[in-house]
Amino acid sequence: MVKIRSTTFVQAPMERCFRLTLSTEIHRAATGDIPLNGVVAGLLGPGRTVTWKTPYMRMTFEPEILIDAWRPFTYYREVMVSGPLQSWEHEYHFAPMNDGTRIRDEIRFTAPMGRIGRLAESLFLRRRLTARLIQRNAFIKLAAESDDWHQYLDGQPEIDLRVYDAAMTGTGPQGSVYAR
After folding, report:
1. Domain for residue 180, yes or no?
2. Mean pLDDT (whole number) for 53-67
3. Is the pTM of this model over 0.85?
4. What is the CATH classification number for the domain harbouring 57?
5. Structural domains in the chain (count)
6. Residue range 91-105, pLDDT digits in tens
7. How confident is the model at residue 150, as a pLDDT?
8. In a domain, 174, yes or no
9. Residue 16's domain spans which residues?
10. Distance between CA 49 and CA 55 in Å, rounded?
11. In this structure, is residue 172 part of a structural domain?
12. pLDDT above 70: residue 174
């Protein structure tokens, strides 16, 4: 399993940063990925999914991502339900810091196909996924620190403040049970 860690400091409130990372529109603008199914516009939330059309080197991948753990405005985790990798988890941690916010990302993934997959991980997957994460976070930072954040968040519903953990509640990917 490969681990990627990144920290981004943003001179903006923690709630704004949290909400921006959930925006399908900002993800699309930052990466070029196209949302196909699930939450195709607006903000992702607990127990919700999105399937992205992700072009890479003349190929297209369609990973389905689920928000399976949720503690507003400090943490959430997305996992790949189906897609090109054997496993994928992306944890987002938010903390107030010096009149701004620290966003700490931790991605863990495993490529399929045993030894060939491990070779792909070391030759290009880690580098490509790290570059995408840095690119996306730079885009979020620019939006959060300017007035651009309004185009992604104005008119969006308020965040559900209940804590959600699919593993803790025993619900499946489409579950809607919340833990207190």
Report:
1. no
2. 91
3. yes
4. 3.30.530.20
5. 1
6. 999 999 999 999 999
7. 98
8. no
9. 2-166
10. 19
11. no
12. no
Do the Cβ atoms of 80 and 63 come closer than 8 Å? yes
Q: Is the pLDDT score of 175 beyond 80?
A: no
Selection from 73, 103, 107, 102 nearest residue 90 by Cα: 107
Q: Looking at the chain, how many residues does it have?
A: 180
CB 94 within 8 A of CB 73: yes
pLDDT for the residue 21: 98
Q: What is the dihedral of CA 72, 73, 77, 83, to 10 degrees?
A: 100
Q: Across the chain, what does the average pLDDT equal?
A: 91
CB 126 within 8 A of CB 119: no
Please report whether residue 178 resides in a domain: no
At 117-141, the pLDDT tens digits run: 889 888 889 999 999 999 999 999 9
